[in-house]
Description:
Two copies of one chain form a homodimer.
Chain A (H helix, E strand, L loop, with lengths): L7 E6 L4 H12 L3 E6 L12 E4 L4 H10 L2 E7 L14 H16 L1 H14 L3 E2 L14 E2 L7 H17 L7 E5 L2 E5 L5 H10 L9 E4 L13 E2 L1 H9 L4 E5 L4 E2 L2 H11 L2 E5 L7
Parallel strand pairs in A: 1-2, 1-4, 2-3, 4-5, 9-11, 10-12, 11-13
Antiparallel strand pairs in A: 6-13, 7-8, 7-9
Helix pairs in contact in A: 3-4, 6-7, 7-8
Amino acid sequence: MPGAPDGTLGIIAGRDLLPRLIAERRRAEGRPYLVIAFAGAAEPWLREHPHEVHEFEKPGRLFAALRRAGCSHVVFAGTMERPRLRPWRADGRGLGLIGPVMGAMARGDDSLLSGLARIFEAEGFGVVGADAYLPELTSPPGVLGRHAPGPQSRADAARGASILSALGPFDVGQAVVVAAGRCLGIEAAEGTDVLLARMAALADAQATGGVLVKMAKPGQDRRFDLPAIGPRTVEAAAQAGLAGVAIEAGAVCVLDRSTTVRAADTAGLFLWSAGADALGR
Amino acid sequence: MPGAPDGTLGIIAGRDLLPRLIAERRRAEGRPYLVIAFAGAAEPWLREHPHEVHEFEKPGRLFAALRRAGCSHVVFAGTMERPRLRPWRADGRGLGLIGPVMGAMARGDDSLLSGLARIFEAEGFGVVGADAYLPELTSPPGVLGRHAPGPQSRADAARGASILSALGPFDVGQAVVVAAGRCLGIEAAEGTDVLLARMAALADAQATGGVLVKMAKPGQDRRFDLPAIGPRTVEAAAQAGLAGVAIEAGAVCVLDRSTTVRAADTAGLFLWSAGADALGR
């Protein structure tokens, strides 16, 4: 795990808890930071933190703001909607970047994000992963809550991992649901919450006793796309009748960990940080 | 394509158009048949055809009925819900079969269906594919409607085919949606209609211009699990903003073909029966 570098940190904020957690940690540690949110996605919690709201189309203005704040490094944190770019609003830097960004957008999430990282690096900013600032985000192998996976759940988790590995070359698939050896759902662009809602709706409760398996994509650049679960994930898994949730150890974040573990304990679900050996990787 | 054998045909009827089309064809040709529907899934069209309603738990009674009607062959046609078996209702043959059937159900669709086929064969019935009775169900390679796929759509279809091939060993995945190189959705247990509804709901119309790719699973036993599209598929693809639908030539049925093609023509979608070379198989 890379250490957090000194200097002012630019927090490029998407949705979900992660950017807020990093901002709060920086504040608690008395270390400088600036949160960058995007027009249309600026949330109330920002008011308590030094922040600026920018537009995707005006990266020139964004880079200038980061420099003005003395940022040497940035962290991409939280879910970013794929922006609908409005080229007519672009600033000078934006016009030069629209071509590469649109090309990267077409090729998939990893491609888009590594394209964005290269752009920031070319502007002289280091790009660091969120786990450098919140090292407790990911977990070593082990059972996180009160309930442990049984043999069928372990086999389902391993099968899910094989399916995700097979999809790796296509830059798709961070989560699957496997129940008693049968793959019932695969996440592509819709997100884990939508996958789980679909499992809850499956006609004859065939998902009952299944396992949600969530892993990093092979070759995924974890500096800015850490897969994550949180309390909502566990609640949705419980509603789908699943036996538990298996996450790849050291690679998938547990957001709001104490609430997440408590939710799993209460619902009777296991929450398992599975090592490479258990997942057959 | 196997020819249709002589003698009375048992049509084991699931949902969708297929069993009805086979029954109507048999009637039009003046050849004998008996439709078997299952309790809870018997539909009004059955009334116009010789039929019996049976229970999954009473295969002994079902086999006796097929023999009484002189059936030498059966065809599995239409979508079958995975039954919730009620062992306490089982007849003698049923009790003996519950173990193997439950085991096959746990291992996936192909496994369940080939398990069922083996059971019918062991009882002395031949199992024949629906395309033996309706040879026009599948299509040779070619564009079926008025609109042809452009280069991006052809590339998307090939990428979709690669993804489905990668999933083949896991007995999952008959359809995917790929848009501008990016995989947006993968069908597992939810069915193609639910996949397409999800594409229509994707926040920022990212599915626009994408392609629905539907293929047989590698190694799929096509005698009783022909993947199919129909008018509803095309309408749902149009609602998702897709550019068209690519199906594997010779392997995916087009149900109610004239209506399906007309729907595609009207909506401006291509309907492409893609050969193995075009799909990179």
